[in-house]
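Worked problem 6 (solution included).
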Amino acid sequence: MKAILKNYRQSPRKVRLVADVVRGKSVEQALNALRFLDKRAAQPFAKVVASAVANAKSAGVDISRLVIKKVSVDKGTVMKRFMPRARGSASRINKRSSHILVELSEK
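Solution. The predicted structure is:
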């Protein structure tokens, strides 16, 4: 039972901070922790966990025994933008995105 969110528009470095909070916890504890976490990635992360729970429910698994087995945040596509600088030069701005994968298992 797993769920994936692709091309979430936030840097993987910032999203991994949220992933470290929920890794290894039960689903109920993880959703509760995400509800009170003051990071921007917490809400989309909660949606991915809820989606994985719904996938497990449709497979006929007991939801009360589910544990977050694996969480990975990988680098997604990078949009390259340019900002004008002094003397007619330009510097590059990387707008990074993330792929979030949540995998559940029974305890």
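Discussion: The chain has a mean pLDDT of 96.
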